[in-house]
């Protein structure tokens, strides 16, 4: 499958990978929107949040565990976790990814 994040997971395309385990890979966003902007992706291809099923529960747990571990490692006491589902919501890469954003204040409601 011609998927950018599958290629990053399999190291066919370089990225600044900062965490990898059996289920998920985390790397720095190429166009950071905050001082810390990390993408955490499942190693297996899942198109987006709308494609999740109960069988993905361990993968989802690993995504959030990696997020909290990385946030702690970066010394972030508060941070924002974002999943954009669908082009209308801003999804541009159709391989599920959790944005970990921190290091500045965030507005609510989001833009
Ligand atoms: P989305 O808009 O789908 O929620 O988020 C996709 C994210 O992937 C964007 O924040 C974008 O900057 C990031 N991105 C796109 N292409 C690359 C790339 O080749 N490498 C990395 N590290 N991030 C990318
Ligand atoms: Zn993929």
Count of all domains: 1
* Cα-atom radius of gyration: 13 Å
CATH class: Alpha Beta
| Overall mean confidence score, pLDDT | 97
| Count of discrete alpha- or pi-helical segments spanning 4 or more residues | 2
Give a short summary of the structure:
This protein has one domain: HIT family, subunit A. Helices cover 21% and strands 22% of the residues.
Comma- or semicolon-separated keywords:
single chain, 111 residues, alpha+beta, HIT family, subunit A, 5 strands, 21% helix, globular, binds guanosine-5'-monophosphate, binds zinc ion
Describe this structure in words.
- Strand 2 (24-28) and strand 3 form a beta hairpin.
- Helices cover 21% and strands 22% of the residues.
- The protein contains two helices and five strands.
- It is α+β, with helices and mostly antiparallel strands.
- It has helices spanning 4-9, 57-73; strands at residues 17-20, 24-28, 36-42, 80-82, 98-102.
- It has a single domain, classed as HIT-like (HIT family, subunit A).
- The mean pLDDT is 97.
- The longest helix is centred in the middle third of the chain and has 17 residues, at 57-73.
- The structure holds guanosine-5'-monophosphate and zinc ion.
